[in-house]
Amino acid sequence: MPLPVTRASASPWLTVVLLCIGQMMIVLDQNIVNVALPAVQRDLGLSSENLVWVVNAYVIPFGGLLLLAGRLGDLFGAKPVFLTGIALFSASSMLCGVATGETFLIASRFLQGMGGAVASACILGMVATTFSDRREQAQAIAAYSFASAGGGAVGPLMGGVLTDLLSWHWIFFINAPIGAALVLVGMRALPGDRGEGMGKGTDFLGSLLVTSGMMLLVYTIVDAERVGWGAAQTLLLGPASMVLLMGFFVRQAMATSPLLPLSLLRSRSLVAANIVQFLMIAGMFGLLFFGTLYLQRVLRYGSLQAGLGFVPIAVVIAAVSLGLSTRLITRHGHRAMLLLGLALIVGAFVMLSFARLDGVYLVDFLPAGLVLGLGFGLAAPAVMGLGTTAVAPTEAGIASGLFNTTQQIGGATGLAVLSAFVSARTRSLDAAGKTEAESLVGAYHVAFLAAAAFTLTALIIGMSLLKATPSADVDRHGMASAGQDASVS
C-alpha cells in the first residue's frame, strides 16, 4: 500500500532537485573546508589548537540542533523551515568568506552550522513524502543519497580547486549565489505544507534538554582528541551530556506534546536503520579523512591531486545511487541491498588496510575506493528508505532530524575514535624506530581495519534486527510492499 503524501506539487521532481542541491551544498561545506585549512591558517595566523575550531564550530551546532529543527519542520511546515535554514546558511557563508580574524571566522562558522542544521533536518523528510509511488519514492531517496555521498566525495576536489586557483575565501563565497537561487526558486516551486501548528503547544523543556545535551556530547567527542579521552574534561562532560539526554527521554514520556514521540522508537526498522547508519557513517569517515591523508602524506599528492583521486568514487556512487540501486531495491527490497552494500564496504576497508608505503594509486587506492563507492551507493539509499518509510508523513520531519542526528554523531564519533587509534599506533611505531612514513602507513592500516569493524558491526545488526515480514519485501509485481517496514509491537 503506498504511503500517503502530505504535500502536493505540480513539479515533484523539481522539488527533489532543489532539496538535493541544498543537501549537496551543505554536505560539500562540511568537507570542502578540510583541504583549505592550511591556507586559512597561514592567512589568519591561527594556532594549530584554534584551527580545529574552524571545523568544530560548525559541527557542534549542526549536530546539536538537528532533532529540534526536524520537529520545527513538523510544527511550522517543512518549506519555511528549510528556506530559513538555507538563508541563514548562505548569509553566514558570506560572513565566513569576509572574515579577517579567527574569532570572527569561528563565530560565523557557528552560525553556518545552525543554518545547515535547520535546512538539513527537513530535507530527507520532504524528499521521502514527495511521492506516494514506491518506485518513485525509492528514486527520490536514491537522489538524496547521491547528494549526500557525492557532496562528501567532491568536497576535497572543489576545496583544492577553489583554494589553488582563487583563495580559501571562495570555498565560502560559492554558497551565497547557490543559496540565494534556492530561496528565490524554492519560494515559488516548493510545495507548501501547513504543519501541525502550535495549537497543542510544544515541548520547550525537552527542546532545551536535547539541544544542550547533543551540543555538549558533540563538543566532548570532537575535543576529546585534543585533551585526551581520559582527561578530566572528557570524563566530566561526557556523563553530563548523558544525564541531559536521559532527562530528555524522561521528559518525552511525560510531555503532552513531546518533541520526540517515544512511540517512534517502537519501530524496529527506524531504530535499526539509525543504529546501522551511525556505524556505517563512523566507518565511512575513515575513507574521507584518512584516505585523503594517505594520498597527501604518503603518496605525496597535492590538494588538487588528492581531490581528483576521489572523483572516480563519486562517479560510482552517482551511477549506483541514481540508477542501479532503485531497480535493485524495487526488485529485492531494502534489507537485501543494505546487507550487500555493507558487505562490500567491509571488503573495501580490508583492501585499504593493505595499502603500501611505496603504493600506486591505481593499485593501492582506486580498486578499494570503487568497491566502497559501489557498496555505499547500494547501502545508503537502502538504509534511508528503511528509516523514512517506517513513520507516518506527519512525523517525517522529526524522523528526518533523528536520522541526520545519528549521521552527524556517527561521523564525529567515528573520526574521534579512528584518530585515537591512529595516534596510538603512530606513537607505538615511532617508539619501535620506524620512519615517519612507515609509522603513518601502519597507523592508517589500523584506521581502515577499525572502519571495517564499525561496518561489520552494522552488517551484523542489520542481519539481526531487520527481518523480512510475512508480507515479504517484494510483492508479486516486483514493487516493495508496505510490509517492508515492520515495527515491534
Question: Explain this structure to me?
Answer:
The chain is mostly helical and 489 residues long. It folds into 2 domains: 12-191 and 259-465, Up-down Bundle (Growth Hormone, Chain: A), CATH 1.20.1250.20; 204-258. It is 78% helix and 0% strand. The chain contains 16 helices and no strands. The protein has helices at 12-44, 48-76, 78-97, 102-128, 134-165, 170-173, 175-189, 204-227, 232-254, 268-298, 303-309, 311-332, 334-352, 361-388, 396-431, 436-465. α12 (311-332) packs antiparallel against α13. The radius of gyration is 22 Å and the shape is globular. The two termini are 20 Å apart. This is MFS transporter. It is found in: Cell membrane. It is a multi-pass membrane protein. GO terms for molecular function: transmembrane transporter activity.
List the helices and strands and how they pair.
Layout lengths: L11 H33 L3 H29 L1 H20 L4 H27 L5 H32 L4 H4 L1 H15 L14 H24 L4 H23 L13 H31 L4 H7 L1 H22 L1 H19 L8 H28 L7 H36 L4 H30 L24
Helix pairs in contact: 1-2, 1-4, 1-5, 1-7, 2-3, 2-4, 2-8, 2-15, 3-4, 3-7, 4-15, 5-11, 5-12, 5-14, 8-9, 8-15, 10-14, 10-15, 10-16, 12-13, 12-14, 13-14, 13-16, 15-16
